[in-house]
User: Which sequence fits this backbone?
């Protein structure tokens, strides 16, 4: 079982109590020498107990002790400590002071020195120390005990080494005149006593000394101080038991110019000098842990390290972005060394934040981490295995001040408050807005965690500012005993934070916060100027494009019964305006407006006839406001991106980003609309009678990636799952079931058109979205003797034994109960026999075969009266059947040419044009001639967006145009007109039962082509071609 940091560590008491104040971190050498420092620095034993034995400090003690005690006289006489402010230089000087005073128990140095090292006794070594910031070249440093005022570095050193007498005798004149003395000063004052001279932060003194002239006015104090240092180094190098230790800040320090001058001066002593770094980069973690925690159970830490290592492997296996170093074995060693801190927290403080001069490296890290530890122990989280960067609580104003104003980054405070943690109740930061649904669902506030980590990486300037996504994930993701943070959820939180934050920038590589408002802030401000009415007008327009006529006929914003058609045509999808009606999740009963529209029709508000043919889509009251907000944001982006003047204010990459934001916002509007219209009321026999037999269903939510271009299809899919609609792919409804639902009791006949309309009237029946469904049900009824099919035009009836026919739907075809068909003596196809003729003829026109005139005489007499074309109209199956029927009636043996044509203005005609182009290659060997006139008006008059095409030619040439015409006829258009004609020249006489003719019919039927006119050029039967 994994154990938390609260179980495996104990912070030091002063950390938890808050007594580890800022002043304690700012160690001062002078206070220690004067005996005025805080006990944490003044008490030698306590000081070393709190100090981590870095390699630099151990080397420093050995170098200085070895030379001053004489045990290693060859050690360097000059030691230079180099690092940035807060890097441990002053801390090392204090360690030297305590170690050489001789008042420290030998056991306190066990971690620093081997047992055989000699430690000075009290008084064996003279120790002096000067801090550059304590010197006052203009007013001097007043020593009240001896009534002495010193002005220079050498004057102060002479006073500390020789007291009042030594100063007055050997240094007063050079000190007052600001003229550097030679090495003789120290020969007289020090003599042969072991002496440690420590000079801290001298570069700061040089900045002030440069403004002070010497008494001769031929030089300044800064130059004299540098000259004195050269003399001092020469003196130290010449003595066997004198050591000079001085500190220099890094090159990026505030006093970098003075530091560079000193570094150049020190080159002359390079052979006697040793440069040490108080703490190495890999020791920062250990220093911080040692200073802040009094107990760490290192034996139990390995379990945490192993779990983090395994979790990082799991994350990589999911192809989630995570930095490669997380998978290295040495990184897990970093985790163990830095415990309880995550290595990425130490890394960002040391390599990013520590580069800011005012942060003061280790000192600044200690101050910040102490606050984080105190906060965690006051509000423990049972899932805290390591202290990550996001545990720096930006909700604490003192921490925010330390990271902004204190570091000369005051503008970053507004960044933090706007995008990460807001100090104002009721006004959440953008990260909190992103996290709200996650936290409500039991997830963690990933946006705040990500924002905090990015913030720490953003405080530094230049190319180092910011963090790449793999490194950000490494710093943020946290395992659990089993599993852990889902990288996909964290990644989505990052994307949403980027979309929402005002100051967050992503340049394609790194995320960083900037102090200038991001494009999001500019868009947010512009959004504020978009009116709600303007946004709603945009929404109303888009609703009309999102739900388009297809299987259903959308009818927008009806409020009165006469606004909603009452017919048996396509099912009506009534989309109720969100301002007229919106409901919450608890409202399962249809509202009054919906019931009124469902039950009544027309101006007189009589009862609705086709109550099963209307559906209602109603807005979710919880989503309307968000929908309006998304529309306002889109209109703001549209206003910006369509203004050439505004766009000139932005760089090229920002212009590109704004255009991408506009595209995303447009999609967001669509998503928001579809999420708002999520309640569907549909007629059902299971619905309450007092609620107009309406039931409510929730439309499945859709995200950006799966938003259907036509939301009508989403509704159809939902209704299909509810078995409320029947499509061409469904099995036909059994005729017995349909007859039981659609026919009244004791009804003996019904037209097929009335049967079709019954599906629009009876709430117990599904909606028919394909007439073929009804045709197949009619056929099933004929075969199962539920009814007899009768066509009033040719007066033929069909029962289960009749040859197949095309089952037409219309007022001219009827269904009869078998008993009623028998009573009416309907002619059954395939069974009916005409009355037998009178034998031998009866003078009434009957003839025998021998009476038939010669064929040539017949053609000569009546040939001109035969039809030159056999025609049929309707859907392809119907048209072909009519042509075949006509051919049978006129003794046609074959056809030589087929002419297929259609014209119209509906979407079905456009679909037929596209389908016919797919059918032609499947019609077999023939010559295909095409004539086409196509006119499309895309926008409403007086708009000028139109497409016009006139073509006459053969298929080989037309097929090169097919892609163009197909693309245009599929676009949304205000009006469309198609006039198409296809001539098929077979080049031979094609018998009526020829496979090519059968294939042509089947292909056109399968393609779903709409009504056509079909004409066949006949070849009449003769003795030579008669079968």
Assistant:
């Amino acid at each position: 079982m994994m154990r938390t940091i609260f179980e495996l560590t104990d912070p030091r008491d002063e950390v938890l109590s808050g007594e580890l104040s800022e002043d304690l971190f700012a160690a001062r050498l002078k206070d220690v020498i004067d005996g005025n420092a805080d006990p944490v620095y003044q008490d030698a034993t306590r000081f070393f107990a709190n100090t981590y034995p870095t390699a630099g400090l151990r080397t420093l003690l050995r170098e200085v002790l070895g030379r001053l005690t004489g045990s290693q006289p060859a050690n360097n006489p000059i030691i230079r400590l180099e690092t940035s402010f807060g890097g441990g230089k002053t801390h090392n000087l204090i360690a030297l002071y305590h170690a050489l005073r001789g008042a420290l128990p030998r056991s306190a140095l066990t971690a620093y020195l081997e047992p055989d090292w000699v430690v000075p006794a009290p008084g064996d070594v003279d120790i002096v120390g000067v801090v550059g910031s304590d010197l006052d070249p203009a007013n001097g440093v007043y020593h009240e005990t001896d009534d002495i005022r010193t002005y220079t570095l050498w004057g102060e050193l002479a006073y500390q080494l020789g007291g009042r007498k030594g100063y007055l005798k050997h240094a007063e004149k050079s000190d007052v005149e600001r003229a550097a003395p030679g090495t003789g000063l120290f020969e007289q004052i020090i003599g042969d006593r072991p002496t440690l001279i420590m000079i801290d932060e001298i570069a700061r003194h040089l900045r002030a000394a440069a403004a002070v002239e010497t008494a001769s006015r031929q030089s300044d104090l800064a130059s004299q101080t540098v000259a004195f240092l050269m003399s001092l180094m020469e003196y130290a190098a010449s003595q066997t038991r004198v050591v000079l230790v001085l500190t220099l800040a890094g090159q990026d320090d505030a006093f970098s110019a003075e530091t560079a001058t000193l570094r150049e001066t020190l080159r002359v002593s390079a052979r006697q000098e040793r440069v040490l770094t108080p703490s190495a980069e890999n020791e920062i973690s250990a220093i911080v842990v040692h200073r802040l925690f009094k107990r760490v159970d290192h034996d139990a830490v390995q379990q945490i390290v192993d779990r983090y290592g395994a979790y990082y492997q799991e994350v990589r296996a999911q192809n989630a972005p995570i930095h490669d170093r997380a998978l290295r074995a040495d990184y897990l060693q970093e985790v163990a060394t830095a415990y309880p801190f995550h290595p990425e927290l130490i890394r960002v403080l040391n390599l990013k934040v520590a580069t800011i001069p005012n942060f003061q490296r280790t000192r600044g890290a200690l101050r910040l981490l102490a606050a984080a530890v105190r906060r965690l122990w006051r509000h423990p989280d049972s899932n805290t295995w390591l202290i990550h960067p996001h545990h720096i609580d930006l909700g604490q104003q003192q921490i925010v001040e330390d990271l902004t104003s204190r570091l000369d980054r005051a503008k970053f405070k507004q960044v933090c408050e706007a995008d990460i943690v807001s100090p104002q109740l009721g006004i959440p930061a953008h990260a909190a807005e992103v996290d709200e649904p996650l936290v409500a669902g039991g997830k963690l506030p990933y946006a705040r965690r990500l924002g905090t980590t990015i913030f720490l990486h953003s405080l530094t300037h230049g190319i180092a500012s910011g963090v790449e996504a793999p490194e950000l994930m490494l710093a943020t993701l946290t395992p659990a005993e089993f599993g852990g943070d889902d990288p996909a959820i964290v990644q989505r939180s990052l994307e949403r934070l980027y979309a929402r934050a005002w100051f967050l920038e992503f340049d394609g590589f790194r995320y960083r916060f900037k102090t200038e408002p991001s494009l999001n802030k500019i868009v947010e401000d512009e959004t504020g100027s978009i009116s709600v009415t303007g946004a709603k007008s945009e929404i109303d327009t888009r609703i009309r494009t999102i739900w388009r006529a297809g299987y259903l006929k959308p009818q927008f914003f009806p409020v009165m019964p006469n606004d909603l058609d009452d017919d048996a045509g396509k099912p009506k999808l009534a989309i109720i305006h969100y301002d007229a009606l919106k409901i919450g999740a608890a409202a399962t009963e249809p509202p009054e407006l919906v019931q009124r529209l469902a039950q009544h029709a027309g101006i007189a508000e009589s009862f609705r006839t086709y109550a099963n043919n209307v559906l209602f889509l109603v807005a979710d009251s919880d989503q309307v406001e968000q929908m309006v907000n998304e529309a306002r944001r889109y209109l703001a982006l549209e206003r910006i991106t369509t203004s050439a003047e505004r766009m000139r204010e932005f760089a090229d990459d920002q212009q590109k980003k704004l255009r991408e934001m506009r595209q995303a916002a447009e999609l967001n509007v669509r998503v928001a609309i579809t999420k708002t219209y999520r309640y569907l009321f549909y007629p059902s026999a299971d619905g309450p009678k007092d609620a107009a037999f309406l039931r409510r269903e929730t439309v499945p939510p859709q995200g950006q990636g799966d938003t259907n271009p036509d939301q009508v299809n989403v509704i159809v899919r939902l209704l299909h799952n509810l078995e409320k609609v029947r499509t061409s792919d469904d099995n036909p409804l059994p005729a017995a079931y349909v007859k039981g639902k659609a026919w009244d009791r004791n009804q003996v006949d019904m037209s097929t058109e009335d049967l079709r309309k019954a599906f629009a009237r009876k709430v117990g029946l599904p909606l028919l979205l394909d007439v073929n469904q009804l045709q197949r049900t009619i056929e099933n009824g004929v075969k199962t003797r539920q009814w007899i099919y009768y066509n009033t035009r040719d007066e033929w009836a069909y029962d289960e034994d009749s040859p197949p026919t095309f089952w037409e739907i219309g007022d001219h075809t009827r269904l009869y109960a078998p008993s009623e068909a028998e009573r009416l003596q309907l002619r059954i196809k395939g069974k009916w026999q005409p009355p037998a003729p009178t034998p031998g003829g009866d003078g009434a026109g009957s003839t025998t075969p021998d009476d038939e005139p010669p064929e040539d005489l017949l053609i000569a007499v009546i040939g001109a009266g035969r039809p030159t074309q056999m025609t049929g109209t309707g859907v392809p199956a119907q048209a072909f059947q009519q042509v075949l029927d006509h051919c049978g009636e006129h003794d046609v043996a074959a056809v030589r040419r087929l002419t297929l044509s259609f014209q119209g203005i509906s979407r079905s005609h456009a679909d037929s044009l596209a389908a016919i182009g797919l059918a032609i290659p499947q019609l077999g060997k023939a010559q295909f001639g095409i004539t086409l006139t196509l006119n499309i008006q895309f926008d409403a008059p007086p708009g000028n967006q139109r497409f016009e095409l006139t073509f006459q030619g053969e298929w080989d040439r037309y097929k090169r145009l097919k892609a163009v015409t197909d693309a245009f006829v599929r676009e949304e258009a205000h009006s469309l007109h198609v006039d198409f004609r296809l001539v098929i020249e077979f080049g031979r006489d094609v018998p009526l039962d020829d496979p090519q003719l059968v294939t042509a019919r089947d292909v056109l039927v399968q393609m779903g082509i709409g009504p056509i006119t079909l004409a066949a050029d006949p070849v009449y039967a003769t003795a030579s071609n008669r079968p």
In short: DSSP finds 42 helices and 32 strands in the chain. Residues 841-853, 855-864 have pLDDT under 50 and may be disordered.
